[in-house]
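Example (one chain per record):
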Amino acid sequence: MTPSDMATPVSSSAKPAVEIVTSTPPRPRLRRPPARDPLAFRQARWAGLVLFLTDILSMQFALAMGTWLRTFFNMIGRDSGIELLRGGLRRGEYGPLAVGMMVIPIVYLFQGLYPGYGLNAVERLRRRVYTVGLVFALLMAWDYAVIKTDPSRGVLVLTFLFAAVFGPVFEAFARQMLRVVGAWGMPVVILGAAKTGQMVTRVLQREPELGFVPIAVYDDDPDTWTKDVAGVPVLGPLSRAKKQSKICKTAFIAMPGMDSAKTAHLCHRLPFARVISIPNLVGLSSLWVSSRDLGGVVGLEVKKNLFPRRNWMLKRTLDYILGVHLFIASLPLLVIFGIWIKIVSPGAPVLFRQPRVGFGGKTFGVWKLRTMYPDADDRLQEYLENDPEKFEQWKRFCKLKDDPRVLPGIGRLLRRTSLDELPQLWNVLVGEMSLVGPRPFPHYHLARFSPRFRTIRRSVLPGLTGMWQVSARSEGDVSVQELMDTYYIRNWSPWLDIYLLARTVGAVVLGKGAY
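Predicted structure:
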């Protein structure tokens, strides 16, 4: 109602209209969730059982493969007259080993892996490998001290290797199937619809492996009640959040600006089994952070894992152990690809060395298989001058989807699978690079990043593969590259390296997002 409407005179013979004037505007009506909304999501109680049964299957499969391979070695030894492994698996030994393998899923249960909501992939991998290693160490000790049979020890060694691989692979497949049928995840509520609440909601949606599914957002600001956050409805003030406690066991407090006393009071009165408060600590490590009780004061311990010398030596040891074997295995491929390149583009070397910026800001030569024409720079300049849209793409990504410099056939194959970087295994062996780390960029690419990020990059060895390569690859612009490389440097651990190496295999095989 406008002031002019309120000032309109009324006839004396007519009944005066009843005017209701308030000092504050009326609150907007609370948003009604749509017919198909996140509130319809319910947690599948049987998801943990599926993962438990999957682990039983994977462990038994690992034992079967270990037994088969042990028998296969014995057959080869008998046929060749060389005793590779003594004896054979005697009758009655397989049953006790199969029962012993059941211990692993039971330990997983106490490790909180069923269903494991809230655990990222790296933490799940760490718990699995530790559990498998501990259980097999106990089985080996029991076998050595009590059973004293060489055949079963040989089977145990082989089974351990298979179990360390099959367990995570089977589990990842099972979780993917659960996501497909809509049975993966638990509903959670977000308290706070401002910037932090929006960020938390989007992160949980972007990382479905965590298993947190936002179904509702609550905020005391009435202006947010008619909106939604990334498709999740805002259903009213914080006091209404308790209505979701019957179906939700977890709530996120995403209001870092709230007074600490109010935050503590809110945590205590919320009827949720688990309350996760998001502090204003953007920029710190997030993967290996642990809480500390300092006489009633809560402290957060942030571990800078790449700083201790022992971790640096561990990373270099892994580089050498894996790098030597990978380099030897890559030699036949390098010969085949080299011949193919010579056939398509004769007259130029198969390998070339490109200057890149590495550890400490020093420039070194990174080796690559040649995937471009010898006059690549001239071709690129002419192409960009004639196509402004491609020039903008080059400015944003420093890459082109239809790069005129790339050789037909072999060039596109190598770049799509990233196999043109196989010669960089030599850079790893001589200590100029690591297997995993931020990619070494040329100077023109580094100039796109902030000075702070360039300083962070210089503190570690560049890598043959890295986080953004297996996640975004060529589809990630410089901002994505900076975000993911910073995350890797701040959250490094051997488990993160193993996880990224495993994902690299899938990225190379599928060739998704690379050009």
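Caption: The radius of gyration is 30 Å.
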